[in-house]
Amino acid sequence: MLRSKYNHFILNQLPLDVFKDLCETLNVEGPCNWKHVVRTLQEKEHFFSDNEFIILCRSRVDAFEIVKKIVERQVTVAFLLQYLDTLPCKCASTALINSLDAYFQASFQQQNYGPPYVQQYYSQDRFISAPTPGHMVPQDHMAHERYHTVAGFPTSSHMMQYPNDPAKMSTNSLQDNTTPKPQKVITILEQPKDQRCSPINCEILRFIVESNQTDIKYQWYHNDKPVPGSLKPTLILEKPSVESIGNYYCIAESPSLGHSPHGSARSRTAFVDIVHDVSQHISEFNASDKIALFIGNDTYQNNKQLPAVSRDLRVLTKIFKDNLHFRTLSFQNLDFLEMHRVFRLWIDLSIKGCYCVFYFGGHGYENDGQCYLVPTDAPSKYISAHCIQAHSALEDVQRRCEPSMMLILLDICRKSNPHDMRRYSSRTSFTDNIVFAYATTENREAFEEQGRTYGIFVESLQKHLEKPIRVNHMLSYVQDDVRKSDVQCVEVKTLLSFNRCLTDRLEAGKGYSEVHRKWKEMHDVPELPVLIQCKENGISFSVSFKSILTNCIEVTASTVNTNNLNQCEVYVRIDRLKAQNITLSNSEGFDILPHERLTQSPVQILNLQKLEESEVKIPFLLRFQEKPGDFIHEKTYVYKLDLSVVQAWKSQIGCVQRKS
């Protein structure tokens, strides 16, 4: 039987046994799993509530539970098939059609029915029947009158007269007193759509339904709270403000239909956001300073390596420094004592009323509501004594610096540590103006996926950081993106009292000049390329330096004047840099292979905080031929670079002792 025959059947009128084969098909692992249907339904229809969707993604439910939730809603076979058809294979939709064929064939044979048909009825309760779901209008009615379609079977009283041809049923035969009236329904015609609106315009949300009832009442909701006076199918948002941002939905119901499942209809949830021109700043707030501390630990001495963390650290540093105009303190691979020092450094370089952002990517765990950050030198069976207690360190920053806003981004696992059996108090003393964003929910893991350049959390985060909207609203976009990964969900906790944004303007406060000078010293490298001239052969080459992280600089060399010599090339001597116990990587943050001696590509010098001297000797190898076919000559040149960050780092060394 053609699948179109079933398009208008309402799912909750069918027995659940019909969906048995469909559930078995959706329970298999792979691209045709039920989770793909759930995600598509949520993306296009907001079919589930946010909490319901998170629970479904996190739990190991059976496909039958999902199908049951869909069936309970007032949707048709066509609606379900529409989303089953989005799967890579057609096994699920075929299973449903075959089950419907078998069910209806058995029903018809048992009661000697003909094929199923579609009843169409008018507000005057006059009916006709048609063998297919077409629009048939009785001759005694004007063609413009509204009508409704309900899938169903011919009743036994009708089939006694016309057992095999329901199309022969006349209009008059359907008007007798024995004809049961069709089930009254509310049909959704138009759903509200997501809106991205300007604060100077008005926006309209529409939820249009039709019914054979005339007493339909509407009520709009904003973030699950009724919108006062919103009793019409259209909701007008006049000059929407930041408070207008959120989820909207509408419920239409008919009092005359009572508590019948067909007596009300709920719209999809539409998200309304305010889009501002960057030149029209949405926030009335300014920051006295903007400073961020980023730590990315990817190379552990005794624990699993996390290759994506170094790239996460670099992309966040670039966005915050270049686009959001934060002063960034970015460190890769810090041990226990070094992590303590950078928190002290962060406090020393912060002033009252600043915006503070903290990011940590690496190993971590959570016990009793307290998060612990794992340094690179932690043992394999680490406990709290080997780690940094995040909440305690961050409370100290808030207490001393009194920032106007703190954003905490923790890209760690939050599972409990089986090696740490101590119990700790979960009490915190954070005041307002702080937002926590965890890469995953409590007692869950955060993941790196093979083939991705960045971690799941940071890949979504970097897309939305520059949105000029309230921080917790910006993070809601990140939550939606990460949910699509199907492996973790971002959790946000906020005590933010005002509409502060990462894009807020900087209005330098008291003490800004001094802390900015200190920060600049820590990132001081030659701004212009350094020209190195070789007097004996007339060759010259340039060396460029770039501050990538606070403890990482990039070195690039290129020839400027070859003096007409053949095969004139300049290299960075990796072997001699390694001899100085300097850690190196390529421009993407990957380790340089052990056998590499020379490179013409940019080289990054890492772990500057571990250098004994502030002066670094950077060797270069010059290769050239004086004449074609002549021997290749090699000559080494050394450039001495003075790194202020080393001296500034040493000035931060205090009596930081490891906890026992």
Automatic annotation (TrEMBL):
The terms under GO molecular function for this entry are: cysteine-type endopeptidase activity
Superkingdom of the source? Answer: Eukaryota
List, alphabetically, the InterPro entries matched: Caspase-like_dom_sf (IPR029030), Caspase-related_regulators (IPR052039), Ig-like_dom (IPR007110), Ig-like_dom_sf (IPR036179), Ig-like_fold (IPR013783), Pept_C14_caspase (IPR011600)
Domain spans labelled Ig-like: 180-269
A single BP term in Gene Ontology: proteolysis
- Spell out the Gene3D superfamilies in the cross-references: 3.40.50.1460, Immunoglobulins
Q: Which PANTHER family match?
A: MUCOSA ASSOCIATED LYMPHOID TISSUE LYMPHOMA TRANSLOCATION PROTEIN 1/PARACASPASE, MUCOSA-ASSOCIATED LYMPHOID TISSUE LYMPHOMA TRANSLOCATION PROTEIN 1
Q: What is this protein called?
A: Mucosa-associated lymphoid tissue lymphoma translocation protein 1-like
Gene name tied to this protein: Malt1
